[in-house]
Amino acid sequence: MSKVQVKEDAPVVIVSMTQLLKQSSSEKAVSMAIEQLVESRKHWERNELATANETLYALLQHCYALNNTMTGNDSLAKNLRKGLGNYIDQNKYKFTDSTPLITKIVKCVFGTDRKRVNAYSTAMRVALSEKISVIELPKYLKEKGGVEEVRRQGTVGKSIKVKIELGRTVLEDPILARVQSDSLNATFSTQQTEEGIVLLATREDDGSFAIRRLIQNTSAVKAALAACSIVGAEKEKAKKMEEDAQALEDDRLAALAKLKAA
Q: Which one, of 215, 176, 207, lies nearest residue 98 by Cα?
C-alpha cells in the first residue's frame, strides 16, 4: 500500500479510508489510517495553518468517517475499535470509559493539546448530533463559520429541554448494580414524580462506591440527565445508521427479487 509522502513544498497524500479499511487486517488498518492523518496534520501545521482551513476540514472529515465506520456491532466495527484501542495503548493516551469515540480519534490525530482536541471533538459531536453526513461535513463547517463557531453554538445553542430528552435514554441502559437498604428507602419520597433520582457516591479505597446521599431534587435530576445528552445523541446516530443500512438491504433484496421475476 502507498505510504504517506511528506515534502515541505508538497501536500500530504492520504490513501482513502475505503482503501485502508479494505485491508486484510482491519485492526492494523486503523493504526495506518491514523498515522497517515498524523502526518497530514503535521504538514498542515508546518505549511498551511495560518492561511487555510481546507486541510483541517479534510482531516476532520477523515476522523468523522473513521468514527462512523467504527460505530456499530458488526465484526468490522468491532475489529476497528479493537485496533484503535491497541493504538491508544501503544501511544499511552489516557481516556475514561465515558470518553466519546470521536474524541479518542481526534486526540490520536491531533495530539495532546487539550484545548484544540476539545474544540475539534465538540464540533464533531455537534455534527453527529445533527446527523451531518461525511461528504457534507466540510461544507457544513464552512457554512457555520468554522470549527470554533460550531463548537460554541453546540455548547450554548442546544436547549436544556433537548439535552434532557437525549439524556433520558440512559434510564433504559443495562443496570450496573442494585442497592437496597432501609436507609435509602426511608429517604426516598413517593411524592416526587421525576422517574429518575441521583445517588451521590464516593469511590472508596477498596474500590467500592459508597452512596452518601439520595437526591430527588428535580433540577438536580434534570441536570444529570442533560449531562448524558451526548450518550443519547450517539444512540440516535447509531440507530439511524442501522435503519439506513436496513433500508439499503431491503432495496437490494427488492431489486434482486425483480431481477429473478423478470
A: 176
- 187-209 pLDDT, tens digit per residue, is 888 776 566 888 888 888 888 88
pLDDT tens sequence across 153-180: 766 545 666 677 777 777 777 888 888 8
Which residues form the domain of 63?
Answer: 17-157
50 neighbors 35 (Cβ within 8 angstroms):
no
Residues 131 and 61: beta-carbon distance below 8 Å:
no
Same domain, 59 and 162: no
- The DSSP code sequence of 82-114 is HHHHHHHHHTT----TT--HHHHHHHHHH-S-H
Number of residues written out for the chain: 262
Residue range 104-121, pLDDT digits in tens: 999 999 987 888 888 999
* pTM greater than 0.85: no
Assigned domain for 1 exists: no
Q: What SS3 state is found at 203?
A: strand
CA–CA distances in Å: residue 64 to residues 38, 59, 101, 159: 15, 9, 10, 25
Q: Is residue 30 part of a domain?
A: yes
